[in-house]
Each structure stands twice: as C-alpha cells, then as structure tokens.
Amino acid sequence: MISKVIKPGKSFAGACRYLCSNRERAEVIFSEGVRDYDHVLMAEDLESQRQLNPGLKSPVQHIILSWCAGEDIQNEKMSEIALEYLKRIQVSNTQFVVVRHNDRNNPHAHILFNRVDNEGRTIKDNFLGLRGKKIAQQLTQEYGLVPAIKKDLERTQMERMNDFDATRYEIFQAITELLPKCRSMDELAVLLKVEKIGLVYKFKGQTNEVQGISFTKGKFKYKGSEIDRSFSYGMLSKKLEQSKAKKQILNMSHSGTKIDLKAWAVARAMDMARELLKPEEEYNQLPSEFLKKKRKRHRL
C-alpha cells in the first residue's frame, strides 16, 4: 500500500463533487460528521464547520491510499485501514469521509477531511506527506498487504495509478479555483501555466475549429471531461461566457448605468446567434494549403 497527500485546497464543494458525484465509480464506505448520501449536503456540512476558523484559507485535505492490482480489499478492511491511517497521522475530532473509487485496476480510496476540527482548531499538516508514506509502509506490514518495495510491474503500475489520480485532482482543484477569475480561455491558460498545468486544444481536421480540450501536468495528459464532466470545451466556454455576462452587469450597475435586463438579454441572444451563424473560417484565416490556386491545364 502507498499513500499520496494532495496539497490542501480551498473548495469543499469542488472536492466533494469530484469524489462523490459520479455514483458509477464512487462509493462512500465510511464518514464522520457529514451527510454522506449527497455530495452537496456533505460540502455544506464541511463548509459550516470551516466557518469556525475563517482565517484558515486551505481547510480541504485530500489523501489517496492505493493497493496493488489484484489485492482483495473489501470495504470493511479498507475502512479499517483508512481509520488507522488517520489515527496515526494524528487526525481526530474532525469531519471526514472515506470514498472508494472503482475506475482503476488497483483498489484505492480517497480520504477527505476538514482541517478545522470540531473545536475550531487547525489540524496541522507539517511533513504530512512524509509521515503518511512511513505509516503506509507500517500498515502494509501489519495487515499483510503487498509491499511496494520491488521495482516490478505491479508496483510501477500502482505508483502510476496513484500519481495519475492525484494529478487529475490537482488539475481539477486548480481549474475550480481559477475559473471564476477568468473572462476567456486564454486567461485561464495563463493562470494554469503558473500552476505548471498546460492547456491543449484539439482541432477539427485541418481547420481552426476547436473540437475538444485537454490538460497536461508533468507526464500526464487528460481530456477535459476526464477531469470533470463540466470541464469539456463546450461546458468551460459556456461557464466563461456566463461569468463574463455577470461581470458586465456588475460593472454597469457599479457605474450607475440603468440596466434594462430584458433589452440586455435580447442583445446577448442576438450576439450569440450572430456568432453561431458566422462562417467557420474567414478567407484570410484559412490554412495555406487551401489558398493555393489551381494550375491551368494547357491544351495540347
């Protein structure tokens, strides 16, 4: 068994949605202090306790525990190991949830806990990654699990799966936090670059029409929909358009401009219609191979 500690985040809503919203891959196997049957209510419970310590900017702690492919780890045993892991990293008296994901060959669980405990105190995360790694090794021996020691195929696969899921969540967390600050995909790309995350477009054939979007970090690459269903190119574009529209209304109201919402909505609809009806490519934007003139054939 190995563990991976994710950098603390800000959004319980995003974390709960990522871990629990897809019922086909996610199963809550243990929880404490939250309504675990609905990810929205779960986030509300976590956020409510977070308010006991509003000065803590990153209250969301996420850890992944992974076992080797083929290991028989039933929910009861997985929960027992996860609870012992939390006890040994000195996480207690707080809200938490253990979620099993079934989308990989190797059994793995996600632990989400509130760094604001039930008394409003901060749960420290000093050297949590290193401590978690050592405790995972101890639990592997005590429970007779497959050790991640030999450089064999199984271990390599387990580490890759662990890092793959962790990196995917890190990208999800970054997009969730940065998207509200952006007005365009270009702005999002610039902010993601600071987090060492790349944004790659997929184009339709030889045209400039964007067909999809992917995100990269380190050696991993994910389609937008792999990160989250709402992070496809179409859904992201829609969110950015809605955010831009809201900011326009706020700017107009702050400037004292009287807003006719009905007229504004009609104008927005007209703009969108014009955008949809506009030809896909302007002549001067076409790739060079489409601009070559046909040679005239000389008659003999």
TrEMBL record:
<dbReference type="InterPro" id="IPR005094">
    <property type="entry name" value="Endonuclease_MobA/VirD2"/>
</dbReference>
<dbReference type="Pfam" id="PF03432">
    <property type="entry name" value="Relaxase"/>
</dbReference>
<protein>
    <submittedName>
        <fullName>Relaxase/mobilization nuclease domain-containing protein</fullName>
    </submittedName>
</protein>
<feature type="domain" description="MobA/VirD2-like nuclease">
    <location>
        <begin position="18"/>
        <end position="145"/>
    </location>
</feature>
